[in-house]
Amino acid sequence: MSEPGLGPTAREITQARLATLGTLVAGIAHELNTPLGALNSNHHVIERALLKLGEILEDEVVTPDELDEVRRVVRATESVLRTNGIAVERMVNLVQNLKNFGRPTTSEPRPVDLHEGIEGSLALLGHELKEVEVVRDFGDLPLVVCHPNRINQVFMNLVHNAAQAMDGGVLTIGTRVEGDRARVRIADTGRGIPSDVIGEIFEPGFTTKGERIGMGLGLAITLQIVHQHGGDISIESEPGRGTTFDVHLPLRQPTGPAREEAAE
Questions:
Q1: Quick check: helix, strand or coil at residue 167?
Q2: How confident is the model over 111-135, as a mean pLDDT?
Q3: What integer pLDDT is reported at residue 231 of this predicted model?
Q4: Count of CB atoms situated within 10 Å of the CB of 99
Q5: What pLDDT is recorded for position 23?
Q6: How far apart are CA 155 and CA 146, in angstroms?
Q7: DSSP 3-state of 231
Q8: SS3 of residue 5 by DSSP
Q9: Ramachandran region of residue 7, left (φ > 0), alpha (ψ -120 to 50) or beta?
Q10: By the 8 A CB rule, do 192 and 264 touch?
Q11: Range in 9-23, 79-93, 113-127 with the lowest mean pLDDT
């Protein structure tokens, strides 16, 4: 475990990332059940439709009534195929988001659409947000030069933290350009954080759930990643009224020690 007051070690970051991936895999499996169930059910519908069409077309002459039945079956089949298309797209997107999250870090940062990373995080955590109203207040952001999978982990950690703090409620994610930095605001209407501990939330091992033993690396890693990118995080919270995190990232990757540290 990290020494008090120090950031998490590389090993702890790797362990926390693997733990996050494990949680995501469980969530993805849960999310895949719905579209897979739809595909399975619709497969049988299409089978029955084809059998019905085969029976009608066995005769050389198709009566007007049979023709009406053919049209009805075709319309129903088209509707089923549209549903299947939505289900398949949902599964493809979920798998792609998971692949993007787990992709190894490249040595060089690159221009990134932060909105894509936010949407990917929301998709992967959809099973935790079913009872939450998600409000997007996206501004016109340019591409931000960063390590995308690390910044995506920041969004993942903050959204996960917000979901855990709420029983229902509203999650608002806003983006803006402020000078030479991009600001991403993640605000929840959850239980909030007491003022006497808010200054400790970024310490490795801190958690508001139970005892502070070996848990709560998410926010410590989040702060470290943001600092490695030359950015910072601010927080406002009030018990019973929710918590707001503001992530500020430079539009271009810094040079010097911050960049060297980020590339490790």
A1: coil
A2: 89
A3: 95
A4: 9
A5: 63
A6: 13
A7: coil
A8: coil
A9: beta
A10: no
A11: 9-23
Cβ atoms < 10 Å from Cβ of 158: 25
Residue 134: its pLDDT value, please?
Answer: 96
Q: Is 123 exposed, middle or buried (0-12, 13-18, 19+ CB in 10 A)?
A: middle
Q: Strands 133-137 and 170-178, how do they pair?
A: parallel
- In terms of DSSP H, where are the helices of the chain? 10-56, 64-102, 114-124, 148-165, 217-228, 257-262
Residues 201 and 245: beta-carbon distance below 8 Å: no
Cβ atoms < 10 Å from Cβ of 239: 13
pLDDT at 205: 56
Structure confidence at residue 176 (pLDDT): 97
Residue linked to tokens 């619709």: 42
- Rounded mean pLDDT of 205-217? 47
**99 vs 55, 86, 127, 206, CA distance in Å?**
45, 20, 18, 29
Tell me which residue has tokens 């970024």: 202
If phi > 0 it is left, if psi is from -120 to 50 it is alpha, else beta; for residue 182 that is beta
Q: Are 40 and 32 in contact (CB under 8 A)?
A: no
Q: Is 156 left (phi over 0), alpha (psi -120 to 50) or beta?
A: alpha
| C-alpha–C-alpha distance, residues 160 and 125, integer Å | 7
The two three-digit tokens of residue 93, written as one number: 């997107």
